[in-house]
Amino acid sequence: MEMTLRWYGSKFDTVTLEQIRQIPGVKGVITTLYDTAPGEVWSREHIRAMKEEVEAAGLHISGIESVNVHDAIKTGSEERDMYIDNYIETLENLGKEDIHLVCYNFMPVFDWTRTELARRRPDGSTVLAYTQEAVDALNPEDMFDSIASDTNGTVMPGWEPERMAHIKELFEMYKEIDDEKLFENLKYFLERIMPVCNKYDIYMAIHPDDPAWSVFGLPRIIINKENILRMMHMVDDVHNGVTFCSGSYGTNLENDLPDMIRSLKGRIHFAHVRNLKFNSPTDFEEAAHLSSDGSFDMFEIMKALYDIGFDGPIRPDHGRMIWGEKAMPGYGLYDRALGAAYLNGLWEAIVKEEKKHEAE
Ligand code: CS2
Ligand code: MN
User: What global pTM score does this model have?
Assistant: First the structure.
């Protein structure tokens, strides 16, 4: 396991590389070219410049989150081959720059969905939260407007104003797409990119849909054990893997997280570990990473990752906004640094305990 932090680049992130470097045990960042649109080719020059900046700060790039997939690929429209060609070129350029992990998602229209970006918790921190009742009462445009007013001046991934300006067209594109069709289009995409992934040893790690069910009538497939195993078998290559995100799969209380982790042995290439606090099965908020602050047993999650021999990057996921920080919701420095320290502590204890048992 390698502890990392997500970083959006110096133009977009309120957190600096110098700050990240001071979090104990963090040597790697998960980053992206945040100003490229889905479907655009990432040039080698841009990738190299990003790498040099990270390395100059004494860190390295542990992986990319995300290289976003164009909606033409997700919907299987006529232009998809052109966009897949571009994606392949980006993967080649990443491979040539010695980057071997790519996180992406296959969610229609939106990335994650939350109904509040700053719900106040009893300790005065603010967090992202979701209630199904609020989603049922909103249309997607209103949702975008309410999100846009609460972002502390940052651009939220998957909710870029340029995309949201076309939201009606985007919905139109998905009119004929159901779960089966989305699976087919994902398979087509993966089969086309696997040769380049094999050539450059790039591990693709699909991020789950968040929340793990359909929103606004859109199909969503990366939601549970059955579907993710189907996806693994459908393109049975080690480079077709998973980002295990506890906070996303965990939105559905029927998902047994440690069991899911164990069933994905060898195919989890990246992990997002965070905790949620449920007020009801359809009302949850993002808690501190500590088990007792939320509804998940974080020890069991880390233990399952250890047991399957997970050796990829892990990162704390969304943190609370605390200590007066103003940052992209979910992506401040303080609570994610606390999260990293806590997860490192759990890991150290697990490793030492296991080594002791092995020696006995
Ligand atoms: C992330 C996702 O902030 C988050 O919820 O975990 O946005 C994730 O980066 C994407 O879905 C991956 O493409
Ligand atoms: Mn995640």
Answer: 0.96
